[in-house]
């Protein structure tokens, strides 16, 4: 694994805050039963944030017909919905929620060409709430496969997320399993899949980015 290049500044800031906190505890707190546990807690936070922003090296299962997981997380919603923004048609929605313990690097779900991408500023409601899909900060990206079908996914910021990174550009060829961005802190991925797609997960399933199959088209 390696540290995501878009998070160097965030991780450095975490390190500086933790170092400053530990220094203040050691210099100004005379009670060992207070300063040592708190110092260890700050070291744990620094280590956790390093892990949180790592990019795993995994063998992809996706291709132009098989849609792999964009992120680690838990499937919280599967239903047929009308997508009014870009697709403007009914689609199968699969939502995967990421908590604080999941790696938050994101990867292309399918091989094809980026046909659409757009960033939307917004609120920061808890990501597992249904209305967060439309009201929260998010970035929508669609990939057209070689067969002409489009797969759209939405990177959705959560209650604590403050930045979505997406490397999509319209017309860019992409390959399933390669990194496409990252979402910082708790968040969600919404997949909008063709109605004829065969969904390969169910609500409650834990999925792993790149390794888990979401659907087949």
Key terms:
single chain; 217 residues; alpha+beta; Glucose Permease (Domain IIA); 2 domains; 8-stranded antiparallel beta sheet; 3-stranded antiparallel beta sheet; 3 helices; 21% helix
Give the SSE map.
Blueprint: E1 2-3, H1 8-28, H2 32-52, E2 54-55, E3 66-68, E4 73-83, E5 89-98, E6 105-107, E7 112-120, H3 132-135, E8 138-144, E9 150-157, E10 164-166, E11 173-174, E12 179-183, E13 187-193, E14 198-199, E15 206-207, E16 213-216
Antiparallel strand pairs: 1-2, 3-16, 4-5, 4-15, 5-13, 6-12, 7-8, 7-11, 8-9, 9-13, 10-12, 14-16
Helix pairs in contact: 1-2
> Number of domains in the coordinates?
2
Provide the low-confidence segments as ranges. none
Apparent shape: elongated
- Count of alpha/pi helices: 3
Mean pLDDT: 89
Query: Could you please say which CATH topology of the largest domain applies here?
Result: Glucose Permease (Domain IIA)
Description:
- This protein is of the alpha+beta class.
- The protein has 2 domains: 2-55; 66-216, Glucose Permease (Domain IIA) (Distorted Sandwich), CATH 2.70.70.
- Helices cover 21% and strands 37% of the residues.
- It has helices spanning 8-28, 32-52, 132-135; strands at 2-3, 54-55, 66-68, 73-83, 89-98, 105-107, 112-120, 138-144, 150-157, 164-166, 173-174, 179-183, 187-193, 198-199, 206-207, 213-216.
- The strands form 4 sheets. An 8-stranded antiparallel sheet has the order 11-7-8-9-13-5-4-15.
- The longest helix is centred in the N-terminal third of the chain and has 21 residues, at 8-28.
- The mean pLDDT is 89.
